[in-house]
Amino acid sequence: MTEALLEIQGLTKHFGGVTACDDITLDIADGELHAVIGPNGAGKTTLIGQLAGEIAPEMGGIRFAGVNITNLPAWRRSRLGLARSFQITSLFPEFSVLDNVALAVQAHAGHSFRFWRDARSVPELREPACAALARVGMTGKADSIVSRLSHGEHRQIEIAMALATRPRLLLLDEPMAGLGPEESARMLTLLRELKRQYTIMLIEHDMEAVFALADRISVLVYGRVIATGAPEAIRANAQVRQAYLGEGDAAVLDHG
Amino acid sequence: MNAHLIARNVFVAALVAFLLALPLYTGLSGNNFLLTLFTRIVILAMAATSLNLIMGFGGMVSFGHAAYLGIGGYVVGILAYEGVYSGFLQWPLAIVISALFALVIGVLSLRTRGVYFIMITLAFAQMIYYVGVSLNRYGADDGLTIQHRSQFAGLLDLSNRIVFYYLCLALLLGTIYLVWRLINSRFGMVIQGARSNDRRMRSIGFPTFRYRLACFVIAGAMCGLAGVLLANFNSFISPAMMHWTRSGDLIVMAVLGGMGSVFGPAIGAVALLVLEETLPLAIGRLGYPLVGDVALRAAEYWQIVLGPLLLAVVLFARGGIYGLLPRGRRD
Fold it and tell me: Which ipTM value was assigned to this complex?
């Protein structure tokens, strides 16, 4: 295993009396696809929120590519190469698809105190954006207004925007949430391709996808990491089965 | 370019042509009232255009934008009172001071959102208003007469109505062009992105605060220049220039004309101020044959007609007047 790209050390966060993250310690190795699974309310999205810089942890630290990013604002983390996609689609609905992705390119193409030239005619912004759209298979929809597209297409734009920031690590928060079977299959293919090029931390409920894709899996229950390991080890882990049995769907572990 | 798109362009072109040709008509007919009215309209259209940069495109609903009209005006008035008439000094100073005020107000208020932002900008404007009221040396509540309009070493004679009108119109068109360049530039994309989804903007790597602040300062400076024009136009400054109802008027102009377009606020300014002038007359003239003197008294309450009109625009025409004009389909 190569050295860790992301090191999470003792991350803790409460919301009122609820412990969302309880002393989470995790390493994401360079090049791996690390899936984080767990029942609803296990603290997965809170974890991503802290990694992306939207939620301040109470305790613990995060290092990314050797840099302590625990107290950096979200935009700085993005500049360092940490990109996230949102579980609940978060785009610029009144803009065109290409404008959405071009904004992500622009964020990483120097400062934006450029007041005169038409941003839509700058090839340094449009071309990488087109490339990112091509990557997720959305070239044909480049000029469509985002609010008029389907949920599945929104999920693809989410990924394209993350890619357009030229990240070193992708934090994908349930990219398959709400997708139909066909769209899921397409997303799975896409994730399989991305896996070869990027380090990915994947949060996902679709166990089939998780076990098909992940190099390692961490299981989060009530804000705690109860197990981390290769898919086979996780499948066989008694504690994990116990946690999912409690939820009444341990069967998903066998089908994966 | 399709036929629908052209309908909007024709409307805007007709409005610009009308504004350009107006002095010809007023010169021939000797109708100075109309020229005076439209000089005021053009100046306030400029203020509304600057407000729309932050409100329509940046999503920053400032309820204190008239403060910059006052600041720009007071710089001119105070300098004139102290014997400085040079426009080369007055105007840049007015713009810089308006920008500085916007910087301070922006730093403090842009950390809030929504209703809080509206209230905090209103509060700052009220503070500045009361500073104006307390400036005893410069007329306090009663205001201050400006003896001479700004002087440009004989290059421009602002006391000539027509010259002054064309200067105002040129600055309005320049402001609209500048706003149009701005919103389509990289800077403008960031501003509009932050209006649409600030959280996402930060997550893809934009420190949005500094861009929104810069936009707020640019709008303040533009409005300060409108204040310079307004002070010269009235040859008078008073705290009333920056009363909160004036800020409200600017918002109404932008909403009425259409916030999504660079020309909307100018259209709204023309519509609102022309309605203000003509509604009382119209109510009186139309009502008199029907109900006699009652109509003349009703004419005093012309706002009863204006109010529902505005309401109708807000409820049924989100894009304002500009939005009502047919447009091309986008995809």
Answer: 0.91
